[in-house]
Amino acid sequence: MNLTAQAPLPFDHPVYVTRPVLPPLADYTRSLEQIWQSGFLTNGGSQHQDLELALRAYLQAPYLSLFNNGTLALLVACQALQVKGEVVTTPFTFAATPHVLAWNKATPVFADIDLETLCIDPASVEQNLSRHTSAILGVHVYGMPCDVNAIAAMARQHQLRVIYDGAHAFGTQLEERPIIHHGDATMLSFHATKLFHSAEGGALCMTDPDLKKQVDLLKNFGIKNEEEVLLPGINGKMNELQAALGRLVLQHVDAEKQRRQVVRDIYTERLRELLGLRLLSMPVNATDSHQYLIVRVNASQAGCSRDELHQRLKKFNIITRKYFYPLCSDYDCYKHLPSADPRRLPNAHRVASEVLSLPLHGALAKDDVHRICDAIAFSLSHP
Ligand code: T4K
Question: Residue with the nearest Cα to atom 39 of ligand 1?
């Protein structure tokens, strides 16, 4: 039983799970002046080129293509790698992951997740393979690395493509190697809610130069030159205003990570006192992407369910999120699939009922974090 007598004061403004890093406005104005002078607003101008080079260096990406959002990047990865038939993926993710498969006329086949990493469980992937499977689409959920070695071995054995949705895995390293080096392609999201962002945006990271060429064609309508269109491509291009913002935000990412680490340390210290709450932490061989701060609520020990805690914290103006509930396998558009049967996804169902995303961003003062922890402690025992 968790007992805390004093109710903290509610915040006088909503406290969100995240706030975007915003560089000084004067710096962005200067970038805009350069864009105005150039007269180039999109189609691979100098801001785009600068950001692509800077990100390749920062992320140690052999090849990288920028996109106007992460979803289109994933959609194009599936096209470029000719994903078809069935694709084994996780139900514990954001809607975009299975949707890109459906848009590519492939059927998502949901495999269960591992109870510790919360990523797709290779044993369940294996059970869900069929002669129609063309690829595995793993998600490094919250920046936790998938079991990339087991997935690679399975892909080699069955001649499957491997695509990673790394929307949360900006800068994640596994055994001192960038996570983006694994799989045929990894998508990164640069949405405003991400540690590194360009308001909207994304990238595909690859190790194969031919795939990079194909991806760049596909994201620009399949246009090779003025007279040749080679493929039915799409418009996935990042524009100059996005790229300029990204270029500036990148300069602030390391400092933001340090501020987020301070916030995380306070949560770790304070929440360990509370029965039934468990903070999700990275495996020792991986680095934290500082993207989400996830607590798992064990209702029988905590004395309050995840949903109750989520609701009660609103009274303190603390707006937590239930990422990722409901499971994608429970969406109206997928629940008819045989693989969406809840009996086949026990771990995913359990985890989706336990997880709560807490506020994590660099603008939170230490006192704010303590106040959030006080509110959590109080809420566990006070309806
Ligand atoms: N795969 C995965 C695994 C993903 O998580 C995502 C996106 C994708 C693929 C697709 O990537 P993109 O195509 O988006 O690049 C958000 C984001 O819109 C979405 O990008 C993200 N995942 C998903 C997990 O979260 P919402 O509906 O929760 O966003 P929203 O608007 O409620 O924002 C959350 C909080 O952030 C707000 O309460 C306040 C704060 N916020 C938000 C925005 C947009 C700000 O302070 N400023 C802002 O500009 O989906």
Answer: 16
Across the range 7-31, mean pLDDT stands at 97
| Position 239 in a domain | yes
374 contacts 8 by C-beta, under 8 angstroms: yes
Name the pTM for this structure.
0.97
- Residue 332 belongs to a domain: no
Instruction: State the Cα–Cα distance between residues 311 and 318, nearest whole angstrom.
Output: 9
Statement to judge: residues 196 and 280 lie in one domain? no
pLDDT digits (tens, 9 = 90+) for 78-116: 999 999 999 999 999 999 999 999 999 999 999 999 999
| Ligand 1 binding residues, C-beta < 6 A | 16-20, 69-71, 93-94, 96-97, 139, 165, 167, 189, 191-193, 202, 319, 321, 323
Residue of 16, 78, 94 best suited for mutating to test ligand 1, as the one with most atoms within 8 Å of CB = 94
pLDDT tens-place string over residues 313-329: 999 999 999 999 999 99
What does the DSSP assignment read for 262-297? HHHHHHHHHHTTSTTEEE----TTB------EEEEE
Last residue of a domain, one of 250, 283, 298: 250
Residue nearest to atom 36 of ligand 1 (CA): 18
- 301/234 same-domain check: no
Q: Whose CA is nearest to atom 23 of ligand 1?
A: 94
Do 270 and 181 share a structural domain? no
Domain match, 158 and 33 both: yes
Question: Of 140, 170, 193, 322, which is best to mutate to test ligand 1, by the most ligand atoms within 8 angstroms of its C-beta?
Answer: 193
Alpha-carbon separation of residue 299 from 115, 247, 305, 322, 353 (angstroms)? 16, 44, 4, 15, 10
Domain boundary among 250, 267, 283: 250
Clarify whether residues 197 and 279 are in a common domain. Answer: no
Which two three-digit tokens encode residue 180? 């983006």
Domain of 119, CATH number, reads 3.40.640.10
pLDDT at 2: 60
Compute the distance from residue 18 Cα to the ligand 1 centre, in Å: 9
Measure the CA–CA gap between 192 and 32, rounded to whole angstroms: 19
Domain interval for residue 257: 253-320+359-381
- Mean pLDDT value across the chain: 97
- Both 246 and 257 in one domain: the answer is no
pLDDT bracket for residue 1 (50, 70, 90):
low
What is the pLDDT averaged over residues 271-299?
A: 95
Q: What is the CATH number of the domain that holds 300?
A: 3.90.1150.10
For ligand 1, atom 26, the nearest C-alpha belongs to: 193
d(C-alpha 331, C-alpha 96), whole Å: 12
Q: For residue 42, what pLDDT is reported? A: 97
* pLDDT in the model for residue 6: 78
